Amino acid sequence: MKTLMLLRHGKSSWKNASLSDHERPLNERGRNDAPRMGRLLYSQELVPDLIYSSTATRAADTAAAAALAMNFEGDIVYTDRLYHAAPETVVAIARATDESISSILMVGHNPGLEELMEDLSGHAERLPTAALAVFELEIDTWDEFGQGQSARLAHFWLPRAIA
Q: Do residues 64 and 90 lie in contact, with contact meaning Cβ atoms separated by under 8 Å?
């Protein structure tokens, strides 16, 4: 069994209109929510073996803050491919993961993460900023993972519901 976690980036700031979408940083709420979700993963003993993150500032900062809060000791792989990635791109990234990795945390954007969550769970669920979905996949190797495959939604957390 493999575990796939989908974490949408934290809430971003729109204060500086001169920044590109890719450069937008986290706002105060985003800076608070990212470590909150990391602490949650740590407390639930769900620290991933590997983190993939979009290179967008708000996603990269979310990944780094969550990793620090969960005492993550593995690698964070920053990839442009996750910037506004379609579900099939997220699946392709996961499929290329070494089979020794049991759990992955993907930090990215909507609508792709939300669409993948729906594909895997079979029902539509809103994925607001800093929300986290944890899926259990009945596969032995990542290359068996395919879009349209059903998976068990083991956990779904919203940052505002976490103390």
A: no
Q: Model confidence over 105-136: pLDDT tens digits?
A: 999 999 999 999 999 988 888 999 999 999 99
pLDDT at 96: 97
Question: Sheet holding 103-108: strands in order across?
Answer: 75-79, 50-54, 103-108, 2-8, 132-137, 152-157
Residue 37 vs residues 16, 52, 139: alpha-carbon distances, Å: 26, 16, 26
Task: Name the nearest CA neighbour of 113 among 95, 87, 142.
Answer: 87
Return the structure tokens found at 162. 């976490």
Cβ–Cβ under 8 Å, residues 29 and 158: no
Strand partners, 39: none
Taking only Cα atoms into account, the Rg of the chain, rounded to an integer number of angstroms, comes to: 14
